[in-house]
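Deliverable D4.2, example record:
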Amino acid sequence: MAQESSSVLARPFSALTLQQAWRKTNENPEITKADVALERSPRQEADIFVGNLIDERHGGPITIGYGRYARGQSLTEAMAVDDVMIVLEERLSVSTEAGTVSAGPGEIVYMPKGETVTIRSHEEGAFTAYVTYPPERPAHL
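Output generated by the structure prediction step:
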């Protein structure tokens, strides 16, 4: 993991905790990655797909979902919400004017509201989970 930015942070996430969360998500019939329909990320043309599991429609104060990035994709966005992304599979790089962080399985990236970020997938693509606060509008899905 490389960290060069002071505003976008990537931190290791406990492998055991991540595995427990992943197992719980996949064992809980109410919240699984199979239950969410991944659709092209709003406002862009890249092969980046997202799907919310929990959002305002469920009465939640946050949005929780999954994201899938095809290989070699890039998305630049001004963050309208505070966003935490957990990389579940492969690697991503997140860049701002201040620098770039790279994160792989078990690492989290924090992207604060108001920051303009560019998210890039590597050769393998990537699969992520995300949490936003407040719920992102319009809701993905």
